[in-house]
Amino acid sequence: ILTGPATCVTKVELRVSCKALLDRDTLNKSDPCVVLMVQNNGQWVELDRTEVIKSNLHPVFGKVFCLDYYFEEVQKLRFEVYDIHGTHSIGTRDDDFLGGMECTLGQIVAQKKMVKPLLLKYGKYAGKSTITVGFSLCVCDLSDLFSKSDPFLEIFRINDDGTEQLVHRTEVIKNNLNPVWEPFKVSLMSLCSCNEERKLKCLVWDYDSRGKHDFIGEFFATFREMQKISSGNKVLWDCMNPKYKQKKRNYKNSGVVILTDLKVAIDFTASNGDPRNSCSLHYINPYQPNEYLKALIAVGEICQDYDSDKRFSALGFGARIPPNYEVSHDFAINFNPDDDECEGIQGVVEAYQNCLPKIQLYGPTNVSPIINRLAKVAAGDGNIKDASRYHILLILTDGVVTDMADTREAIVRASYQPLSIIIVGVGNADFTDMQILDGDDGVLRSPKGEPVLRDIVQFVPFRDFKTVSVFSPSVTCSLSIHFSTSWHLTALKQLNRIFFLMQYPQLV
User: Fold this and answer.
1) For 473, what's the count of Cα atoms within 13 Å in the CB-facing half-sphere?
2) Do residues 217 and 316 share a domain?
3) Which residue range or ranges hold the C2 domain (predicted)?
């Protein structure tokens, strides 16, 4: 890893293979070649291309694409597959184009192995979209409820309008609490409309010859989750029956899904100003984002590449919240404490905007409670030396911390856990306290004089950067440096949680 004042860069090698390509040739199979495009100033430019492999619909290319990976940038890539005729020149006809896919380099680094369907122009799926899927179920925990189960599985695709479409129904396996259903083939279009993130609702039933099947449990999955098995991971889902979960204390699930998530916490203390006032840092302008949204989007668009399900928990602090309007320093901004996650960064933005009219900005700006809580979460994943997951707390604040002593104590304790803290100063307030927490001018110590085990805090003032493209490198380069103290950059795929902590103080 090379680090400098403004860049964090590492070399990345990409290898490409394809499966079930379209067969464009009449007499022979297609002669595919992959062209790698990069986006430069909004324009797609060819960077490199693979060799041509003759008459092959499942090519594994020997060409290695070598790229510089800048952790702080969103590097958009496009892979285009062409059928080459005679020469190595790329044809311009539609029938020469076998399909393409877009992603970011950060997504590839985070996933290590990326599998995506090729799309033709206008978004039509390219190639033979048949995949094979197999399921098994362990319902031993339900043996007292279903002593002689005849289970079968139904998979439904959840459409954009919320309706459900049956994709597949397995065979019934008689008298078996641990069925292994026969693998089945289904097109990717039928399974998920070629959308890897589309939710699939899966229901497990106990067959009844009269048609009155007993409900065993359900789980939700995505095609992206299924692809993890190709990397040698064990993919599991909870098969839950809400009825028995409520009634029986000893009811257990039948499996565990281990995924990463992104936490977003927003500071709603009053020093930020009334959001109805144009001078407020939280002012909702219908024509442009406020300072908090600019910072949130700038960092979120970078960090979201390292989250597998793109569902981000969004939290707030320092506000009076309904229904009793008591001050809270840890609340879900979607007001759903059982599920504080939002769909993507845009979901966080929408939750933030919907939340503002419903709360009263208050105070004080106490940061230590959230640091202590997240340190406990990180402690559950092991200490700094052997943790398999890493946590990031990103604080977006106007700079006025009212529990400075407790915050210093909390940071010292957190320095022993797999946790880093990045503070983004929003507005023109005095950020002296934040610079002290940064520790660049000396080792940060608790009020009792105990030093931090390692420097886990980095402060970046948003006002010092004119554009988001300049701001993002400063934040994410700091993040990269924190990782490199204990892990190589390639370990980013094990990033567990990123917490965005944003402040909402009142206009004074």
Assistant:
1) 17
2) no
3) 1-118, 121-238
Residues 6+ apart with CB under 8 A from 397: 267, 365, 367, 423, 424, 425, 426, 434, 501, 502, 503
* 161 vs 152: CA distance, rounded Å: 27
Q: Pick the last residue of a domain from 188, 220, 247.
A: 247
Count Cα neighbours of 213 within 13 Å in the Cβ-side half-sphere.
15
In terms of residues, how long is the chain?
508
Cα–Cα distance measured from residue 57 to residue 61, given in angstroms and rounded to the nearest whole number: 12
**Does 290 share its domain with 148?**
no
Please check whether residues 153 and 118 belong to one and the same domain. no
Confidence of residue 1 (pLDDT cuts 50, 70, 90): very low
* Alpha-carbon gap, residue 134 to 184, rounded angstroms: 6
Give the type of residue at 274.
D
- The single-letter code of the amino acid at 93 is R
Q: Which residues fall within 8 angstroms of residue 214, CB to CB, at 6 or more apart?
A: 146, 205, 206, 208
Please state, in angstroms and rounded to a whole number, the distance separating the CA atoms of residues 288 and 195.
Answer: 30
Residues 281 and 417 in one domain: yes
Q: Is position 32 within any domain?
A: yes
- Integer angstrom CA distances of residue 410 from 366, 380, 451, 478: 11, 17, 12, 20
Question: Which of 424, 407, 439 is closest to 475 using CA atoms?
Answer: 424
Give 274's contacts (C-beta < 8 A, 6+ positions apart): 280, 361, 506, 507
- pLDDT 10s digits, 218-267: 889 888 777 766 455 667 787 788 887 777 777 676 433 232 222 334 44
3-state secondary structure of 102: strand
Q: Could you give the CA distance from residue 445 to residue 462 in angstroms, rounded to a whole number? A: 26
Q: Which of these, 104, 39, 105, 102, lies nearest to 66 by C-alpha position?
A: 105
Query: For residue 45, what pLDDT band results from cuts at 50, 70 and 90?
Result: very high
More confident residue, 127 or 137: 137
Return the DSSP state at 464: G
48 near 36, Cβ under 8 Å? yes
493 to 17, 456, 488: CA distances (angstroms): 22, 20, 11
Residue ranges making up the domain that contains 54: 2-123
Neighbours of 153 (CB within 10 A): 22
> Domain total for the chain?
3
Helix or strand or coil: residue 344? helix
